[in-house]
Structures are given as C-alpha cells and as structure tokens.
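Quick log. Single chain, no ligands specified.
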Amino acid sequence: MTLKAFSYRFYPTAQQESLLRRTLGCARLVYNRALAARTEAWYKDQKRVGYAETSSMLTEGQKTEELDFLNEVSCVPLQQCLRHLQTAYTNFFDGRAKYPNFKKKHNGGSVEFTKSAFRFKDGQVYLAKCAEALPIRWSRMLPIGCRPSTITVKLSPSGRWSVSLLVDTQIEALPPSGDRVGIDLGITSLLALSTREKIANPKGFKAKYHKLRRAQKSLSRKQKGSNNRHKARLKVAKIHQEIADARLDNLHKLTTRLVRENQTIAVENLAVKNLVKNTKIALAISDASWGELVRQLEYKCDWYGRTLILIDRWFPSSKRCFECGHIVENMPLNVRQWSCPNCGAHHDRDINAAKNILAADARRVSLWSDRKTGTE
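-> predicted structure:
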C-alpha cells in the first residue's frame, strides 16, 4: 500500500469561504505566535520550547478573552500547524532547511484536517463546523474502497481554492521494459537522452515575461493598502500561477512518459541550490525546474516498479569522450559541439553527456556484480 494524494479544485459558497478564511487566519496566528515564543525563549534564556509547550500555550490562550475567537474554528488545524512548526524546527536542526519564517496573509496558506475533523460520506467531504459538503470539482474519482486519512485545504496567492485528499492505495507496477535511458539536464534543451533525442525547453517564464513585467509595474504604482493595489496583486499572482501550472503540466507528462517507456533511468544528482547562485543562469535553471523533474522521477519510479539511478554530480559526463574515454581538461558552456583530440570522434555535448551517464550507471552495476561474486 502506498500513500497517494489526489488534488482537486473546489469553489466554496460564501459561508464556506468565510469559515475557511477565518480558519486560515487563526492557523497563521497560532503558528506565528508559537514561532515568536520559541525564538524569544531561545534568545533570552537559551531555552528550547517544543510542541508540548506550544500546545499548552494554545489551550491557555483559547480561554482568554483576547484569543476567544480561536474557538470559532476547528481546533484540529490549529494543532496541526504546531506540529508542522515542530517539523520545521527538526529539519532546521538536522541541516535540511533554513530557520522557519513567519507566515504572511498575502501568500495564501493551507490548513490540514485529520480524521476527527472531517467526514467522508457518499463521496462528499464535510469539514468540521461546516454543514454543507465542499463543492469539489471531481476531475477524477478516488480509487474504489479508499477513504482519505488527511485532508488539506489550500488557498493560493491568486485566490484559487484546492483540496488534497491523502489515501492509502495499491498502485499496480507497470509491465517490465527492457529499455534503459540516460538523461542529461540542460537549458537550451530541457533533456538530452542517450537515444539521441532532445526534448525542447518550453521556457514558460520567458513566454509570460512581458505580461508579468507590465502587471508588476502596474502593482508598484498602486498605493499601499488600497483596493486597487489588492486587485493588481491578484493579477500578478494569477500570471505566476499560469507559469507554474504550465511548467508542472509539462513536467508531469514528460516524467510519466519516461517512466512508462524505460525500466532503468540514469540522471545526474545535481546540486541545484548551488547552481542557482550563478546569477547569469539562475533564472533559466529555476524555470527549467530540474529539482522538481528529478523528484517526480523518484516517486514515479518507486510507484511503478522502475529503477532510478542518480549519478555523482562530479562525474565528468560532458568532458568525457564516449568512444574512447578521453577526458578533456576544459570545456566552457558555450561549446556545444566538440571533437575528441584522442580518437577524433565528433560529439554533440548534451547527447555525449547522456550516453556517458547511462554508461556510468552500467559500469557501476557491473562493478557491484563483480564485487558480489568475488571476480574483481
């Protein structure tokens, strides 16, 4: 059994939207107060405050007149946001993330409902303190016999409401395939495959750049706090949403195709966070979304019984000749075609890199087999 989330858009009634916005606001307030309390306790007394202490603070706060309005919404999302804060601190102390930030109203937000705070009846979702079912646009049905264990309601900065239902389901593996492919990530071409195929980079941000620039200039001229500024901010957020939707749609179609066609996929394990520090190519790398592409390959390969091999980022895939193995000393990014000084073979930089990545995977598997049998 595998945990899988199904996301849908929904269009709440006026009463539902009012309740959900109050829930988002209360969750944001509780999160920010808990973060402030934990930060202050550390800097003043060098004391660590955990989830249990912040949960007690919430319980005591709900009894006061100042925070009495917190009782108007379900208490489950408020407790869940404290658990999320605890996870954020755990990731920070383990070196996986930066220090938690305060949540902002204009960034939308999300709240999580566990089983005690919702009902799933006759294929409809009923949230706590909400009499009517959420008017969800069911673009696809849940697997038969599956019931959601957690429901997350999200409001995007563009004003879009969506709901995510987490279910435990059985995913059937795809039929075995004898094909293997190496992938070289790029900017001009989003992907270069070892099969000599190049997949174009749609460059979604560049396509919307001029529209976004005009909207942002219009936003900068509006007076802060005015209704016109709020309208202009929504226009900017909707353009960003269009860019993100187009990028995500393209990546899902591409990764699904690769997983269906190939039994083994080899790709470089790039440090994207370090690469975007180069200001000249940071925008292009972010628009290509290499990290999201590899993330999708990872979980889809796990779902459908495929093998994903991550090649070491220091492997010289571009500078190594696929024919003879010669490694050139220097190869600037503007060199897209080159000839091997050792054997004279002419290479397309990206295709050669993809072939080397696939060959590195095969060599690693071969060495592992030799060690296991004791023949090396």
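Residues 88 and 100 are 6 Å apart (CA to CA).
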